[in-house]
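In this section we walk through a basic example: taking a raw amino acid sequence and producing a predicted 3D structure, encoded as discrete structure tokens. The instruction is simple. Fold the sequence below.
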Amino acid sequence: MKLIASKYLLCVLILFFTNIIVAQTISIMDGLNRESIPFATISFGNGLGNFADDDGKFSFSKEKYSDVDTLFISAMGYVEKAVLTATLPKEVLLKPSVAQLNEVVVSAPKEGKFRFKKQKPKTNTDLFASWLPTVESEVAVLFKRYEDMPTQISKLLLPINAESKYKSKGKGKFATIFRVNFYKNNNGSPGESICYENVVFSMDEKEDKVFELDILDKFIYVPENGLFISIQVLGYENSKGRLAQTKQYREIKTARGIQKISTSFRPLLPFTNELPMQNTYVRRIFLNKKKWQIFDKSYNAKSKLIQTGHRNYGMGAEFKVYEN
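The resulting token sequence is shown next.
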């Protein structure tokens, strides 16, 4: 009995220490004030990556990613930092970027008469005319001032297809966390990021048609030449309402060997063929050097969305328009 008990204890100890080695939790912090940096980006340098949670923490498994020797950690307003996986610290301190800090927007509320106006969203219920989001994919849309008047964005109107009517009762539950980002208009394409505070929200299977996101308290004003607003997938929400550490790829066995298929997320984003101008750009944070691409044939000529003319994400907005 003692021998069996000793073997059992040894197995427990091995499992315990293996778990410590396999998964390490790292905290990403501001190098000046040591405050946590929520939703920082962790790139593995080979098309893989993930995001830290709202406490700036993420887990990395050396066993799972044995071929990864360096992590590239970045966040808006900070200098990117490379960290060797062989000597991962418990804390990673990022240095604020002087160049990006100059772009931080601190807007005081405007005064005077105003009225609320809407740019209606464009949506549909066709799942085959919808963008299938993957982790870290980002879709950006250009917004201009309302009738060239001083314009604050009070709400974002986000078309979604939650697929709820296609699911049997009690099945298909999910909650996906998204982030909204803002970019300068660089001659009609997204330019440098504008460092507002994080705008993060989640949507679940109960949401459908148009999701209204109130950002009035962020005091976001549209520049004279407009700005791009993007919606970016961070990952699924866990049972505690926190960002789950999501696998970016599923590995599928095929005749050609193991193939990596991008993990997709719901809800879907319906694209429209009703807008006359092309104003939608897309990108993958961990691929193609974070390059923005206009969503037309130059992006993917084989895309069913592009072939059928569904080239724009019909994001709408409610504007607070000032008379002076």
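Looking at the output, two observations stand out. The radius of gyration is 22 Å. The CA atoms of residues 176 and 224 lie 33 Å apart. In the next section we compare this with other chains.
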